[in-house]
Amino acid sequence: MFAYIVRRTFIGILLLLALTIVTFFLFFNSQVDPVRAACGKNCTPERREITERALGFDKPVIQQWTDFMKGIAVGRDYPADPSLLKERPDLAVHCDAPCFGYSQVNAATVNEVIGEAAPISISLAVVAMIMWVVFGVLFGLTAAITKGSFIDRGIVGLTLVVYAFPSFFIAIFILKYIAIKWQLLPYPKYESIAEGGIGGWLINLLLPSLTLALLYLAGYVRITRAFVLESLTEDYVRTAKAKGLTQRVVLFKHALRAALTPLVTMIGLDFAGLLGGAIITERVFSYYGLGALAVRANQSSDLPVLVALLMLAGAFVIFANIIVDILYAYIDPRVRLA
């Protein structure tokens, strides 16, 4: 098991390295002028030169990537050209590791910019994941047990109807009726646990998280139902029933375990995708998470922030795949031999 984990982790590290190379060269070696984007609209030749030297854009792209990777490993000091400190000591900024760069648009390190938005997206993703996994598996099991009945058809049909609506419609509907018209819950406004406690943090996350959960629920219901029904026809399940095991033990210990493999894959990838930000949901509920940050960075051509967000989103997916592979090996020991 240990060798399997080490092998998967090593492959993940190689993928992360490849991701940084492709992303960095894609952005900073494209037609977009990073100096112009960082300098702003009123960019004089003098200001452009200072910006170029301060951020290290005057160096070759390969050197910029090397400095970027060093910043991730050990941190980085700005300006990139130390000689600028004699002329402009006010430009001195230290970025702790892992340093993703400096955003001239926000006049702050990329770490600080992302650090403000990341807790919002992470909170939304965690609460939404718990909702769609719990209710998706529960409804899927219920549909499998009551196969062919009105309950089965009602659950599958209702989840598909909800899935057919676009995310902005679900978000606006929930916000308008539950929060504004019926006032069943307060109008959502993000509060950290330090500000509002666990209760205030959770209540303000219910509506946006419910929106995200409804978008993913249909898939989990159908996958759970399909694999549980398939497992119930297997020989080992018939043997378990013949031995006199209760329906509950057969269902949860034997049939449901076979459905865990595809569910684990879906959970890992869907959760990793949400960690990168839910743009539409965050926009409707006025939550300034990573999705909203990506939109703003794109509008202002803030390349350091865009590069960092893309790398983090890719890293989330790679890390999620590593966790999924480890869980696979735990669920099915045969996977360790692959």
Description:
It is a single chain. With 338 residues, this protein is mostly helical. The protein has two domains: 2-111, no CATH class; 114-299, MetI-like fold (Orthogonal Bundle), CATH 1.10.3720.10. Helix content is 74%, strand content 3%. The chain has helices at 2-28, 34-39, 45-55, 61-74, 84-87, 110-145, 150-164, 167-181, 193-232, 235-242, 247-275, 279-284, 290-299, 303-331; strands at residues 76-78, 93-95, 102-103, 108-109. Strands 1-2 form a two-stranded antiparallel ribbon. A two-stranded antiparallel ribbon has the order 3-4. A hairpin with a 4-residue loop joins strand 3 and strand 4 (108-109). The N and C termini lie close together (12 Å). The mean pLDDT is 86.
Keywords:
mainly alpha, 4 strands, MetI-like fold, 338 residues, 2 domains, single chain, two-stranded antiparallel sheet
Give the helix/strand layout.
Elements: H1 2-28, H2 34-39, H3 45-55, H4 61-74, E1 76-78, H5 84-87, E2 93-95, E3 102-103, E4 108-109, H6 110-145, H7 150-164, H8 167-181, H9 193-232, H10 235-242, H11 247-275, H12 279-284, H13 290-299, H14 303-331
Antiparallel strand pairs: 1-2, 3-4
Helix pairs in contact: 1-4, 1-14, 6-7, 6-9, 6-11, 6-13, 7-9, 8-9, 9-11, 10-11, 11-14, 13-14
